[in-house]
Amino acid sequence: MTDLSIGRHADGNTASTDTAADINPHAVPGAEIIIEQLHKFYGSVKVLEDLDLHIQPGEFLAIVGRSGCGKSTLLRLIADLEKQSYGEIKFKSARHIREGITSDDIRVMFQDPRLLPWRSIEQNVQLGLPKDQHANAASMLEKVGLKDKAPLWPSQLSGGQRQRTALARALSHKPRILLLDEPLGALDALTRLDMQNLIEKLWTEQGFTAILVTHDVSEAVQLADRIILLDKGHIAAQFKVDLPRPRQKNLQFAELEQQVLNAVLAT
């Protein structure tokens, strides 16, 4: 595996990644994820092979790579939507080392918002929440700018508004880990930028660990603390995004974006 654009201290150790907890000390850090010797096979097809990855609590990680390299499969394994062929995926709570992480602590946001058309926007955000936590849904709708849309049906919203609803639904559960499987891929350019800013803002406020799968290298540089490139089931390269937030698309941003893009094209 090639390490590119990774900051290092004088003693040779990798520089620490700024996470949501570093930006907002009042945020509750997300979960640490430790992946060791992960393999995933579909019959004779090897999708992931001997993959090792350590994700810090509260880190924002982006995964890029060509179609079929295993990006979404890795996300589904972390979410326990599929089972690995062998290897381990371990979680550690940053709140308390003996406190376990369960499926309730992990939420997934897909490219399709997957809203129930027969339920209102507010009812969609309340899905899975106990009644005594319905206030969380109302609060998140306000945070994503949809407070006035609460009584409407999904069909009455734009694509961007439906994705905001899906984001509110995921975060109303106050997850330790948020998995984002190309959630902005179907949005127009301006709506996509608005959603990127919203996701970053809520990540900073809440402190969850975020993992984003994307084909958009610019989006990865815009949002992530670190970017990994998957190729044939392996981590081919990784990049530390050592740029201040909020990110500006300056020369340093463009250089890193081109560096990541060149690595993707070389796979």
Automatic annotation (TrEMBL):
UniProt cross-references to SUPFAM superfamilies, sorted A to Z: P-loop containing nucleoside triphosphate hydrolases
Q: Where is the composition biased (Basic and acidic residues)?
A: 1-11
The reply on keyword ATP-binding is yes
The protein's matches in PROSITE patterns, at most eight in alphabetical order, are given as: ABC_TRANSPORTER_2
Q: Which residues form the ABC transporter domain?
A: 33-257
Q: Name one Pfam family in it.
A: ABC_tran
**Would you identify the family this protein belongs to, as annotated?**
Belongs to the ABC transporter superfamily.
The entry's protein name is Aliphatic sulfonate ABC transporter ATP-binding protein
Q: Which gene encodes it?
A: ssuB
